[in-house]
Design goal:
12 helices, MetI-like fold, mainly alpha, two-stranded antiparallel ribbon
Length: 284
């Protein structure tokens, strides 16, 4: 009884804030709900049919997948290299560890506007090259670079924890046997911290699919591009598409249908990634 009493506040909050809105959202996605009109009409899967025939949604979904792939690779590669640096014998490694983590404390909105100035003014004037976020061909790469600058320090700490939990005797024995640094890292260290890779990949996949604030502040979906004969926003990720559909055009039911699809896609990708990661851990 006492267990139930102490768990009740958290369970009630979970039901009211997460579970109930989730199922209400699924219901609203099947209606013509606009958030204001008290009378709603049940439409079935009409919102979903319209969504999958929408060029804006299809393009947004496609570039979100592209952004996720680029972002996951960049963040984890940079984070792992930083982790190797701050766990080595280099002087000032504790200072580096703190410095690399600090960008993660900056909010996405502030970060977006700051890097917008960096790309459009500072870097452009310094290198006499075009801005990465001003071209439809490089804007996704520019967004990935900014997110890596912010998020790699956080993922670095996960790799640092994994590296520090690795027995030193194993690495020392490999050194004595004549293994090069590259082989020690790839053949011994990486398999031994496979669980850290599982966690970091999961977090970066979720972070990439849910990216919103940086997308709004850095590009707000621009610049324009053509896709399937229509003009689209070349950097409008799925979350920003959901926001525009729900808030800007006041079509909340259609935006909610997109949210349901995003949830399903995120669950599927996350389950596949975690399953493959756990399998590698067992093999390692």
């Amino acid at each position: 009884m006492w267990d139930a009493v102490f768990l009740a506040p958290s369970l009630i909050a979970l039901v009211m804030v997460v579970i109930l809105p989730f199922f209400l959202g699924i219901f609203y996605s099947l209606t013509d709900w606009n958030g204001v009109r008290p009378v709603i009409t049940y439409l079935g899967f009409e919102n979903y049919k319209e969504m999958f025939s929408s060029v804006d949604f299809l393009y947004s979904f496609m570039i979100t997948l592209l952004y996720t792939v680029i972002n996951v690779v960049l963040v984890n590669v940079v984070a792992f290299l930083l982790a190797l640096l701050v766990t080595s014998r280099v002087r000032g490694r504790n200072l580096y560890r703190a410095a690399f983590f600090v960008p993660n404390l900056i909010g996405g909105i502030i970060l977006g506007y700051t890097w917008q100035f960096m790309f459009n003014v500072f870097i452009t004037n310094l290198t006499a090259a075009g801005s990465l976020i001003a071209s439809k061909d490089t804007v996704i790469l520019g967004m990935s670079i900014v997110n890596t600058w912010q998020y790699a320090g956080y993922i670095m700490l996960i790799f640092v924890a994994g590296i520090q939990s690795t027995p030193l005797e194993v690495m020392e024995a490999a050194t004595v046997d004549g293994a090069s640094y590259f082989k020690r890292v790839t053949r011994i260290l990486m398999p031994m911290i496979a669980n850290a890779f599982t966690v970091s990949l999961f977090l970066t996949i979720v972070n990439s699919f849910k990216m919103f604030d940086l997308n709004v502040a850095l590009t707000n979906g621009g610049p324009s591009a053509r896709f399937m004969g229509q003009v689209v926003n070349s950097s409008q990720l799925l979350t920003l598409t959901i926001y525009n559909k729900s808030i800007t055009t006041k079509e909340l039911a259609k935006g909610q249908a997109m949210s349901v699809v995003l949830f399903v896609v995120l669950v599927v990708f996350s389950l596949i990634q975690v399953s493959l990661g756990k399998r590698r851990e067992v093999e390692a």
